[in-house]
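#onboarding

Welcome to the new folks! Below is a worked example of what a typical request in this channel looks like: someone posts a single protein sequence, and someone else replies with the predicted structure as tokens. Don't worry about understanding the tokens yet, we'll cover that in week two.

Example request:
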Amino acid sequence: MLTDEKEHIRQLGLRRILKCRSSQNEIIREFRIPILNFKASSYLDLIDWQSTKITEPPLTRHISTETLKKIISKEYDDIEFLNYPCHTQAVERCVKLVTEASNSVCGPEAREGFILSRITSRECLPKMDSKRQFSEALQK
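Example response:
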């Protein structure tokens, strides 16, 4: 919303972030997928803003309120966001694991158990960071 072409939507995004900052008592952000309105004609209407607990996005936490206001009014073009890797091999592995879990079990608790057991079993396996380590392990 902060980078939308329409100024009133950018202002709305800023108001929502400021509301989150003023009412945020907890440090840990609990992410729950909200109920989506698939008949929405705009991305603004995808969720019910009144019934969903909204938290500040991690990308804007380090940006001051004054800088956010400048971004909204297009006075400040050089936006510095923290670098969150989203297209790395680790992320792709996680996507694959969650997909496998979703195909194998039903429900969020069962899916989480599936994922945790897979991660635990993988941690028991020896790690090979190089070909040399691999060939040494084969010789044993």
